[in-house]
Amino acid sequence: MLPGSALEFLDWEWSRVESHYRGLRSRNLSVATIAAWLADWSHLKELIEEGQSRLYVAKTLDTADPQHEQRYLSYLEEIYTPAEEQDQRLKQKLLASGLEPEGFAIPLRNLRAQAELYRDANLPLLEQEKKLGSEYDRILGAQTVEWEGEEITIDRLFLELEGPDRGQRERAWRLGRTRQLHDRGALNDLWVRFLDLRSELARNAGLAEYRSYRWRQLLRFDYTPDDCRRFHEAIETVVVPAARRVIDRRVRALGIPSMRPWDASADKYGREPLRPFVAVQELINKGSAIFHHVDPVLGGYFDSMLPENLLDLDNRKGKAPGGYNEPLAAARLPFIFMNAVGTAEDVETLLHEAGHAFHVFESAALPYYPQLQVPMEFAEVASMSMELLASPFLTADQGGYYSDVEAARARIDHLERILWFWPSMAVGDAFQHWVYENPAAARDPDNCDQTYADLVGRFTPFIDWSDLGAELRAGWQRVLHFFQVPFYYVEYGMAQLAAVQIWKNALEDQAGAVRRYRSALALGYTIPLPELYAAAGARFAFDATTLGEAVALIESTVERLEQRV
Ligand SMILES: [Zn+2]
After folding, report:
1. pLDDT tens-digit profile of 55-109?
2. How far is Cα 456 from Cα 472, in angstroms, rounded to an integer?
3. Rg (CA), the chain
4. 439 C-alpha to center of ligand 1: Å?
5. Tens-digit pLDDT profile for residues 138-164
6. Distance CA 234, CA 6 (A)
7. Chain-centre distance for alpha carbon 361
């Protein structure tokens, strides 16, 4: 018998797991037996996934204790990776049966692609890739600086960039970037190891280059590298000029000659940063009020999380940086991790991660685990839409965090950041296309430096990098995606565009737009990506027209909100 909960499962030895796989392999598949067989395999898979999730959560909650990291790594080695090998045999069995269970067309398409890509020889390489990823984390995690007599992380230091004192901002920025430049050698070495490993992955799979491998690995059926290139061009045409208008307004308001890198996060009227809440309980209570305004069912989901220990939101010593939502696959529940310190960004992070959490709740009724494997291109629609759907309810009279003036300010910041995001996404995506189109050249980090600097110049020409050549050129080393999750970047740009469309729908019909949003979330990944977008009320299109409509809505909203601040 399989245990009902992953906590129990974590005590299992591989031999017990393996015997379940053996059992699944020996069963007969027919129209009559397929549903039960899939359900059993799904449950086993969910336990294995949730085991990984729980160990991941544990290690990010307490990075000081090396046992958590050790436990996580040995789980990968002893359970997770061997299980993937077993899954492969079950996938082949399922595919060979020719059976197509209901609601399983998309998972079968994905399984077919995965089976075609799978090679035994790549399993240790994929594990090695994860370990290189941990090395990247370790290098960046050790980057601390001494600031005002205290040793702090670069993340903490860069909070100074939001402050009103320009000299202080510049000192903080330069200190942090100088510290980061110390690790250039180590990161260059790591980079080449990543690239060589990825070429080998592709070669083993019979593919000439890594991008083709990664495209298949990421199950990108509905768009091509050429579509990404056209998206970059549309961004250059439509968004870059709008982002420049935002920057020009900031430069004028700040009374500075040009926008230096340390000015980008500063408040343009020189105000102190917003402080929307003090205690984490306040973050939670006000968040709850806002979600109830968006939709009572979503509010109820959120309210159920704290009593179930599914929220760990406060910043504590020893916690890993950042924020995430981790689905607990067997329990069909989400877990939100954050490092809240009281900023406006924390509020945005909560809204975002709650969007992911709502996705887990809405899709929980789907019977089979593979139906829950929602692609990033749509997963981020759930989260980014929630940031915008929640935005009308941020004020205290709705139970939210802000006065009218503060809410207008927070929303302007958010909307302007969306405008900046597309160009910086285009930099990150175009950089990676260059890397894997030119794998030999990209092994020389000097070439990466030059390409990155050129792309920053193309998509964000409004930032003044004079005399900051070294910092500009090394900027790609700070982007963890390039190291840990290649090509996982454009998804955010696509999802952001859908989120603005869904927000636009909500401005016309709040209840209807949220209804469509929720029903699309409930579909998991049972229909193709463009249809998921359509179900949620958005076009799966990344041309200058679609983008132009989104940019126009953002700019006109910012203009209206500016009159309130
Ligand atoms: Zn997200």
Report:
1. 999 999 998 899 999 999 999 999 999 999 899 899 999 999 999 988 899 999 9
2. 8
3. 24
4. 29
5. 998 889 999 999 999 888 898 889 888
6. 46
7. 18
Q: What's the whole-model pTM score?
A: 0.91
**How many A from CA of 337 to the centre of ligand 1?**
12
Distance (Å, whole) CA 473 – CA 469: 6
Contact 140, 483 (CB under 8 A): no
Rounded to the nearest angstrom, the distance between the alpha carbon of 377 and the centre of ligand 1 is: 10
CA 331 → CA 3, 257, 403, distances in Å?
A: 12, 55, 39
Query: How buried is 149 (Cβ within 10 angstroms: 0-12 exposed, 13-18 middle, 19+ buried)?
Result: exposed
What's the CA-to-centroid distance between 380 and ligand 1, angstroms? 5
Reported as type and span, the H/E element at residue 79 is: none
3-state secondary structure of 17: helix
d(CA 97, CA 428): 42
- 43 near 330, Cβ under 8 Å? yes
* 25 bridge partner residues: none
Strands 333-340 and 311-314: parallel
Whole-angstrom distance, CA of residue 295 vs CA of residue 303: 12
Distance 51 CA to ligand 1 centre (A): 21
Q: Which of 533, 511, 546 is nearest to 379 (CA)?
A: 533
**Cβ contacts of residue 26 below 8 Å, gap of 6+?**
none
What does the chain come to in residues?
A: 565
CA of 354 to the centre of ligand 1 (A): 9
Q: Is 246 exposed, middle or buried (0-12, 13-18, 19+ CB in 10 A)?
A: buried
How far apart, in whole angstroms, are the C-alpha atoms of residue 196 and residue 179?
Answer: 27
Find the Cα–Cα–Cα–Cα dihedral 403, 404, 405, 408, rounded to 10°: 120
User: What pLDDT shows up at residue 144?
Assistant: 92
- Determine the distance separating the centroid of ligand 1 and the alpha carbon of 220, expressed in angstroms: 18
Rounded to the nearest whole angstrom, what is the distance from the C-alpha of residue 376 to the centroid of ligand 1? 8
CB-based burial of residue 27 (10 Å sphere; 0-12 exposed, 13-18 middle, 19+ buried)? middle
Using an 8 Å Cβ cutoff, are 319 and 334 in contact? no
Q: 383 C-alpha to center of ligand 1: Å?
A: 6
Return the axis-axis angle of helices 122-141 and 66-75, rounded to nearest 10°.
160
Residue 225: burial class (beta carbons within 10 Å; 0-12, 13-18, 19+) = middle
Please give the distance of CA 441 from its chain centroid, rounded to a whole number: 28
Both tokens of 338, joined, read 């954050």
What is the distance between the alpha carbons of residues 333 and 259, in angstroms, rounded to a whole number?
44
The number of C-alpha atoms within 13 Å of 541 and in the hemisphere containing its C-beta is: 13
Cα–Cα distance, 391 to 95 (Å, whole number): 46
Q: How far is the CA of 27 from the centre of ligand 1 (A)?
A: 39
